[in-house]
Design a protein that fits this description.
This protein is α/β, with parallel strands linked by helices. Helices cover 38% and strands 21% of the residues. The strands form three sheets. Strands 2, 3, 4, 5, 6, 7, 8, 9 and 10 form a nine-stranded mixed β-sheet that branches. The chain has a five-stranded mixed β-sheet with strand order 1-15-16-11-12, with helices on one face. It has a two-stranded antiparallel sheet with strand order 13-14. α2 links the parallel β5 and β6. It is globular. It starts with a strand and ends with a helix.
């Protein structure tokens, strides 16, 4: 299936990236140092990512160990749950601080070039973690503000870029202060049209190569990009397709209203583009999106919630099997059932659950010595069940686990 690529335009010039800055203290963040909290850092990061930011610089301002540990934990969560490249800075007093930032999964740790005390760490930090992970950077006092006056801010940004090109490498990182609803795509396309290479969406297949239906449109099947759940079916004309590419949000053409339809424009249930694919006949698009809220106008998550026919049988989809068993275990914890072994484990508590996990792990080791694969299948299944009981007891989900694995 050919992909309508979300492709980086690269003409071998220096690439411009727009990186919003937040000042993090624990789980919350502000747009500037000393300002009141703007919101939870994770939610702000997700909004920036969906609106086209190229990364996120978190400058830590926590002044005590408890706040510092919470900030580190929040950074790890952002790396786990968004694809937004993370840059970190602030509160670097010793090599251990650099290590903690590095272990969050951040792409880079910045030593403040304006701070003599932090600069004393630079050589030791780069020797330990490498120059690809740690570098000196000027950031505070050199931010570009992106506000509502588009023309005025573009002029300021272009002037900044002209200066930045003189002393930066292949990537010119522009740190910006911006509201979470800032349309970074619009800024980047304006920069591109001014001759600056930026990270923009470009289709690998032009509209002229699509096979259109009798109405001059193509159907679009929409899936959740994480779970592959089918959410809805809609249609695009050329204008809707181009708006989707340029804006990063799914835009359709409503056949009933005979007008453009930006999904979420009135409801707030936007669909942020993650990837677009074209089928073998060039006549149907598959869109994988980050869905905000419900996809269906009825309020249902998916438009496909009415069962017409269903044949009973076991599913072979690992994700669904794990999730289904997990949900049964979670339901047992909330709604105990007499005689349930799962409830017996919950009633006995964490020590009993851990003991059973250890016993089942040992059974796997013993079974692995047996040439018959059936025994090891049975023991691994037993082990996974007990691990899921442990996960429910400690509030860990399969999404948490798969996200962690995907980031390794």
């Amino acid at each position: 299936m050919p992909k309508i690529e979300i492709r980086i335009e690269d003409n071998r010039m220096k690439k411009i990236t727009l990186i919003p800055v937040l000042y993090i203290n624990g789980i919350n963040a502000a747009f500037s140092r000393g300002e009141q909290t703007a919101g939870e850092t994770g939610a702000l990061a997700e909004a920036y990512y969906n609106n086209g930011a190229d990364g996120l610089l978190l400058i830590e301002t926590a002044t005590d160990d408890a706040g510092h540990d919470k900030s580190i934990g929040e950074m790890k969560e952002i790396v786990r749950h968004t694809e937004l490249p993370l840059y970190t800075a602030g509160n670097l007093h010793r090599l251990e601080d650099v290590k903690k930032y590095t272990y969050t999964g951040a792409k880079k740790v910045f030593v403040n070039a304006d701070d003599p005390e932090e600069m004393k760490l630079l050589q030791e930090a780069t020797d330990r973690f490498g120059t690809d992970k740690v570098e000196a950077a000027f950031y505070e006092g050199r931010l570009v503000e992106l506000g509502t006056d588009f023309d005025e801010n573009m002029t300021a940004l272009e002037l900044y870029l002209d200066m930045a090109r003189q002393d930066e490498g292949e990537e010119v990182r522009v740190y910006v202060t911006a509201d979470v609803d800032t349309d970074f795509y619009a800024y980047k396309y304006a920069l591109k049209e001014s001759g600056y290479p930026t990270v923009t969406y470009e289709s690998a297949v032009g509209w002229s190569e699509f096979k259109l239906n009798s109405d001059g449109m193509v159907p679009v099947i929409v899936q959740d990009y994480r779970t592959n759940e089918v959410l809805m079916l809609a249609y695009m004309n050329e204008a809707a397709f181009e708006e989707t590419i340029r804006g990063g949000k799914m835009c359709y053409y409503s056949r009933s209203r005979q007008e453009r339809w930006l999904k979420g424009e009135t409801s707030g249930h936007y669909q942020y583009v993650k990837s677009l694919y074209l089928d073998c006949d060039n006549d149907t698009i598959l869109a994988k999106v980050a869905q905000v809220g419900a996809a269906c106008h009825t309020g249902a998550r998916s438009c496909f919630f009415q069962t017409l026919l269903e044949k009973e049988g076991q599913t072979a989809n690992p994700h669904k099997v794990f999730e289904d068993v997990y949900q049964v275990i979670a339901d047992r914890k909330v709604h105990p059932k007499e005689g349930s072994y799962t409830n017996y484990l919950f009633d006995k508590g964490i020590d009993k659950i851990l003991k059973k996990c250890g016993e089942e792990a040992t059974e796997i080791v013993i079974a692995a010595k047996n040439p018959d694969p059936e025994e090891i299948k049975y023991e691994i299944s037993d082990f996974l069940y007990h691990v899921m009981v442990l996960m429910v007891e400690r509030g860990v989900t399969w999404e948490d686990i798969t996200t962690e694995l995907a980031n390794r």
